[in-house]
Amino acid sequence: MKTTKNLISKAGKCLLVFGILFSQLSFPLSVLADEISNEKEGNVTETTKIQQQTTDIISNETNEENNKTKNNEIEVTKEEVQTEEELPEAKEEEINFTVELESDACIIRNKLNTTITLKELKQVLENIVKVTDEDDNEIEETEILHSGDQVTILDENQTEVEYFLVIFGDYDDDGMITEEDQQILLNILKTNLTDEELTEILSFLDLNQDEKFNILDVTYPIFTENTWENQTEATDELENYLKASEETVYVGEEIEVNYIIEGFNIDTLAGIEGTLNYNKELLELTNIKVNGVEENILELDHDYFAYLLEDYNQDGVLITLTFKALAIGNPNVEIENIMASIGGAQAKIDFDKASTIFEIAEYGKGGDEEETKEENQIPQPTTPKTEQTKDSEPTTTTTTNLTPTPVATVKKVALSSDNYIKSLTIKGYKIDFDKNTYEYSINVKNSVSSLDLDIVLNSDLATYTVEGNQNFKVGENTVNIIVKAEDGSTKTYSIKVNKEKKEDNTEEEEQEESSSSKTVIIILIILVIIGLIYVIFKDDEEDNKESKK
Asked: Is the pLDDT at 352 greater than 90, yes or no?
């Protein structure tokens, strides 16, 4: 009987323990179940999105194929219904010009060295009523059109509207675009128009339609390639600098200053412009050579220049400036606002400014006479001179400074212009470094405040400084490495450092902490339950012992 009661008691206690176990585990288990459910729902949602996107792409591709098929069917239908009388109109394919109607202007873009007749224009504008010249005389269909003609067109409401005809790029009014028009455009560029004057005629000069007038317009592809589409990209990274032929020149002598562009790969220059600055009290500009050909020095009005280069692509001297030394000093020759054109596209050059400095010495005439003198020649004492005046005895004057004075020998040494980095590494990060690539980008963690750089220069005579490599802020930071060559020229390498936000890691840490807390709670609950079971069965054993006694 007692045994039965003990069994019932143990069963009841076990049920009680399991009830407590279930009640304690229900909360964490439900939380875990919700998380698993959410993960499944997230996966299903993501899968659904991907399936939907795939369906949309397939649907779009199908629609495009259907549209192409419909268009092909329409074209075939047009060809089928075309009558024999319409076949001669196939000449429309020979039309190589485009027409645009803008406000009161009828703008035509035509090929190089090609005229346009009224008959050809009517193939493009079928609603033309008439065309008259500047004297109001009506033009026949076979006559050539010129800028300034009046074109009368019927609009959608069948109303006559007049347009001013403009053959874009035709500046000598011969009805077509020629190389002579390019030269006229270059001369207009050199005129140094005021902003007000330029604004009035900019729409006729701005061939590339970038709202500016410069060497890029003068070298637009229409003058060389019969196209109004600028398909050229300036891919070469070019170096440019000024270099004087001598470090020292004497008053009265001439000195050459060369402007050099290097680094060509495939692209070729078509034109260049800039502004020349120098001290006119110390120097007189006597000659200019461009690409080896002498230029008219009078073209350098207002110190501004613009030249066509006939596809210059050699590594070497581009412009040679010859100066005459006027007075003692250290003149600086500078070219700024440099813009070079590659087929109408702006060339990539490392700096839009170049300069050089040299010395005009205080003694010596130089030239052939100077070359005959020996180095460190010692002057001979001067012979005393006599002065005689009327009705007086001859008087003898003594000379001073009879001590021999050595003439200093100036040793000319060419300074290095090498300002490249040979190798650049960043500890903990990988970059594909090339000395001709000047911009790089890396991503760093929020804890990073600076970069550990290892820099090796291409020349032992160059030096470098690093800017911006400290206290990185969240977002984009720039680290500049400025390399200075022996001759003073500089080159800058930039590293864009993108620092991540601190919150990016906080959510993951919170999730890890939450997961760890839940695990600890479950373990504690299980340990408590095991302890209760142990206590229950221990009490039963003690009761059995007492009952046996």
From this structure: no
